[in-house]
Design brief:
With 64 residues, the protein is mostly helical. 61% of the residues lie in helices and 0% in strands. α1 packs across α3.
């Protein structure tokens, strides 16, 4: 469920304010720490970057 929601959030290669709030809600709902949440988010972020997204539009921390 979490992975599916994150893929939908990143589908347009941009995370707006409401989607950023949704990410916080998802993290809380699943009881994940920040680092745990980032590990779930990583796949969706990488896919978005491969599709030409600008990292500054993704509201995330990405470790290269």
């Amino acid at each position: 469920i979490l992975s599916k929601q994150l893929k939908l959030i990143y589908l347009d290669n941009k995370v707006d304010k409401s989607e950023a709030s949704m990410k916080v809600d998802l993290q809380s709902l699943f009881g994940l720490s920040y680092d745990e949440f980032l590990s779930f988010e990583q796949e969706a972020v990488e896919e978005s970057l491969k599709n030409g997204a600008n990292l500054t539009d993704l509201d995330t921390f990405y470790k290269i």
